[in-house]
């Protein structure tokens, strides 16, 4: 199934997701390069809410650009299988090798603003990430490592403390939503 089909079948959780679903579908219908950073207005990304086997902890990284604890995720770089992107990003950013989807369907969607910043010595203009989030599971016994060009910390956080780890107001709201969806 392609991304557009996945988005069309996705059942929004709240008003934010209803609106973002509409915007994402219009975006795909309007632009050809939605999966690459060549689209400097917006492009798709994939993130993960990674739980331990008991569902009591979430895996978080200390993101260097945002200077905050956050979920894992990244750019699709042209790949349409966003679940695969999410799995790859967890492995690259944390060192976790054995990770699996709790469900293969989209868990959450959100449009995220990205302020202008310097990456690899180059200025990146402000833009949007059309983000698709997946719910994944891994063992907290696996060895973790930092990916210094992207993060400076990796750790398992008690799920009820995950919101307080972030210092980004918009992301706190997203993490609250993810945790609420887990309780359903």
Short description:
With 184 residues, the chain is of the alpha+beta class. The chain is built from five helices and ten strands. The chain has a single domain, classed as Nucleoside Triphosphate Pyrophosphohydrolase (Alpha-Beta Complex).
Describe the structure.
GO terms for molecular function: hydrolase activity. This is NUDIX hydrolase. Belongs to the Nudix hydrolase family. The strands form three sheets. Strands 1, 4, 5, 6 and 9 form a five-stranded mixed β-sheet that branches. The protein has a three-stranded antiparallel β-sheet with strand order 3-2-10, with no helix packed on it. The two termini are about 25 Å apart. With about 180 residues, the protein is of the alpha+beta class. It contains five helices and ten strands. The protein is globular. The chain is about 30% helix and about 35% strand.
Key phrases:
alpha+beta, 30% helix, globular, three-stranded antiparallel beta sheet, 5 helices, 184 residues, Nucleoside Triphosphate Pyrophosphohydrolase
CATH topology: Nucleoside Triphosphate Pyrophosphohydrolase
* Beta-strand share of residues: 25-35%
Instruction: Tell me how many strands there are.
Output: 10
What is the structural class?
Answer: alpha+beta
Spatial separation of the terminal alpha carbons: 26 Å
Share of helix, binned = 25-40%
User: What integer value in Å does the Rg equal?
Assistant: 15 Å
The CATH class turns out to be Alpha Beta
Helix tally?
A: 5
CATH H-level homologous superfamily name: Nucleoside Triphosphate Pyrophosphohydrolase
Question: Uncertain runs with pLDDT below 50, 5 residues or more?
Answer: none
Largest sheet: 5 strands, mixed
Coarse morphology: globular
Return the average pLDDT rounded to an integer: 94
Pfam families: NUDIX
Keywords: Hydrolase
Family: Belongs to the Nudix hydrolase family.
InterPro entries: NUDIX_hydrolase-like_dom_sf, NUDIX_hydrolase_CS, NUDIX_hydrolase_dom
